[in-house]
Design goal:
The protein is α/β, with parallel strands linked by helices. It folds into two domains: 9-339, Zn peptidases (Aminopeptidase); 350-430, no CATH class. The protein is 40% helix and 18% strand. The protein contains 14 helices and 16 strands. It has an eight-stranded mixed sheet with strand order 1-2-4-3-5-10-6-7, with helices on both faces. A four-stranded antiparallel sheet has the order 14-15-13-16. A two-stranded antiparallel sheet has the order 8-9. Strand 8 and strand 9 form a beta hairpin. Helix 5 (112-126) packs across helix 12 (302-341).
Length: 433
C-alpha cells in the first residue's frame, strides 16, 4: 500500500531547501547571509550534492578546517582516535557560561543528525546578526560532529568492533564512549542533545520526529522536568511549526485515538546516553528522525528523503536553542542543585524502573550503603573508568573506598552494587563509614 503525505509537499520542500542552504538557526536569512564581499561559506558534501549523498570523512575534515580558518569563533580539536585510526573531533563555538553538548551520529548508519550538526556549526561560526552573537556570548556550544567515525565510514550502527556506542556509557569499553565521558566530566554541560534516526513501523510508529527525555529514576526531579519541558514545549513544537509531525520515542500510538499501544524502546536503562546524561545531572534529550522514504517520490529520488531528514533535525535544533534562551536560568539552577544533592547522601537509589515504569521493590536500594570497597585488583581493572565518570575514591588499606557522599552518588551504586544490571565490578557494600 502506498503511504500518502501527511503535510503539504510545499512545506516539506521549503524546509528541506532551508536545510540545504544551511541558514542560521537563530537569525533571519537576510541577517545570516553576511555582506556580498564576504567569501562564500564552506559547504558540506551533502549540500554540494543537493542531498544526493552524505558528507564523506575527507569532506568533513576539509569543511571543518575551512570553517575554522574563516571564523575566530570556532575551534576544532581531536579528542580521541578510533580503533581504525580516525579522529573523533570536538568543535567549540561560543564563549558563554551555559554549555550545550551536541552528540551527532553515535550510530554510524544514522547520518542526518551529523549533517545538521555540521551546517549548524558553520552558521553559528559565521553569523553576524545580533541575535546569534548574543546567544553565543551566553552559550558555549560543543559539537561532536561524528561520534562514531568508523561506523559512519562503514555505514554500520556499531563501531569497528561491532559495539553499540550508545549502550556503552557506563562500561566505557570503546574509545568513542570514553572520549564522550571525559568530555562530560571536564566540560560539565548543562544540556546534552543526542541526534539519531529510526526505522518506522507504520501505522503506529512513523512520525517525522521522535523525542525522549531521561526516564531513569535516579535523574534529579528538577533535571527530569526541564528535560521534559525541552522535549514537549520546545523541540516537538518547533518541528510542528516547520511542518513535521512528532511523537514520543519508543511508544507505539494508535493513529486514530493517539493513545499509547505498546512500549518498544525508551526505558530507563542507565547505560544509554540520554539516561546517563540525566544521572550525571545534565538536562538530556534524544531526538530521532524517520529515515524511511515517505512516498513514491522519495523512493524514486533519495535526495528528497535525505533533505527532509536533515531539515527535520534542524527544525528540532531550533527548538532546543529557543529553550536555552528562554529557560537558561531554570536550566542552570536545576543542574547546579542536582550536582550538589549527592553530598547530602540521602534517599533511595534505583537499580531499575523508569518514569513510566515504577521500580520493583527488589530494584530499590531504600537505605544504600555509605560506600563500596574495591580490592586493589578491582580498582586496577576499573580505576580508569571511575575516573572518566568523575567518581571520587580514596585509598583504604590494600584497596579503595568509593563513598556515595559525592556528586555522582547514584552513579556509584549503578557502577558498583552487586545487584546493578550494568555494573563494572561487584563492590563490597560498606554500611558504616
Amino acid at each position: 500500500m502506498t503511504r500518502t503525505l501527511r503535510r503539504p509537499r510545499r512545506a516539506l520542500l521549503a524546509a528541506a531547501g532551508a536545510a540545504a542552504l544551511g541558514l542560521s538557526l537563530l537569525a533571519a536569512p537576510t541577517e545570516a547571509a553576511g555582506s556580498a564581499a564576504e567569501p562564500p561559506a564552506p559547504r558540506t558534501g551533502f549540500e554540494t550534492s543537493g542531498g544526493a549523498r552524505w558528507t564523506t570523512e575527507a569532506e568533513e575534515t576539509a569543511f571543518l578546517a575551512a570553517v575554522d580558518r574563516g571564523s575566530a569563533r570556532l575551534t576544532v580539536r581531536t579528542v580521541a582516535t578510533t580503533a581504525q585510526g580516525r579522529p573523533l573531533r570536538l568543535a567549540t563555538v561560543g564563549t558563554g557560561p551555559t554549555t550545550v553538548l551536541l552528540i551527532c551520529s553515535q550510530h554510524g548508519d544514522e547520518p542526518a543528525g551529523r549533517e545538521a550538526c555540521l551546517t549548524t556549526l558553520r552558521d553559528l561560526a559565521r553569523a553576524r546578526d545580533h541575535t546569534t552573537r548574543s546567544f553565543l556570548a551566553r552559550t558555549t556550544v560543543l559539537v561532536v560532529p561524528t561520534a562514531n567515525p568508523d561506523g559512519r565510514e562503514a555505514n554500520t550502527r556499531g563501531n569497528s568492533d561491532g559495539i553499540d556506542v550508545n549502550r556503552d556509557h557506563l562500561a566505557l569499553r570503546t574509545a568513542e564512549s570514553r572520549a564522550l565521558a571525559a568530555l562530560v566530566r571536564d566540560r560539565r554541560p548543562e544540556l546534552i542533545y543526542d541526534l539519531h534516526e529510526y526505522g518506522a513501523t507504520p501505522p503506529y510508529y512513523d512520525k517525522d520526529l521522535l523525542a525522549l527525555w531521561p526516564r531513569n529514576l535516579n535523574t534529579d526531579p528538577r533535571v527530569h522536568d526541564e528535560s521534559h519541558t525541552l522535549s514537549e514545549a520546545y523541540v516537538r513544537p518547533a518541528a510542528g511549526r516547520a511542518g513535521y509531525d512528532s511523537g514520543i520515542y519508543g511508544i507505539w500510538t494508535d493513529p486514530l485515538t493517539g493513545k499509547p499501544v505498546r512500549q518498544v524502546a525508551g526505558d530507563g536503562q542507565e547505560r544509554i546516553l540520554r539516561n546517563t546524561a540525566g544521572i550525571k545531572h545534565a538536562v538530556g534529550l534524544l531526538v530521532e528522525t524517520r529515515e524511511d522514504a515517505l512516498d513514491p517520490a522519495e523512493q524514486k529520488d533519495p535526495s528528497l528523503s535525505h533533505r527532509r531528514r536533515v531539515a527535520t533535525q534542524l527544525a528540532a535544533l531550533q527548538g532546543a536553542f529557543a529553550y536555552l534562551d528562554e529557560h537558561r536560568g531554570r536550566l542552570v539552577a536545576a543542574t547546579a542543585r542536582a550536582r550538589h544533592a549527592g553530598f547530602a547522601d540521602q534517599g533511595p537509589v534505583f537499580l531499575g524502573g523508569a518514569d513510566n515504569d515504577p521500580a520493583e521493590p527488589s530494584e530499590i536500594l531504600q537505605d544504600p550503603p555509605c560506600a563500596y570497597w574495591l580490592t586493589g585488583a578491582q580498582y586496577a581493572d576499573t580505576g580508569d573508568e571511575l575516573d572518566l565518570h568523575g567518581i571520587v575514591v580514596r585509598r583504604d588499606g590494600d584497596g579503595v573506598l568509593v563513598p556515595l557522599r559525592q556528586s555522582q552518588r547514584a552513579l556509584v551504586a549503578l557502577l558498583l552494587d552487586p545487584r546493578a544490571a550494568y555494573g563494572i565490578t561487584r563492590g563490597e557494600p560498606v554500611e558504616r563509614c
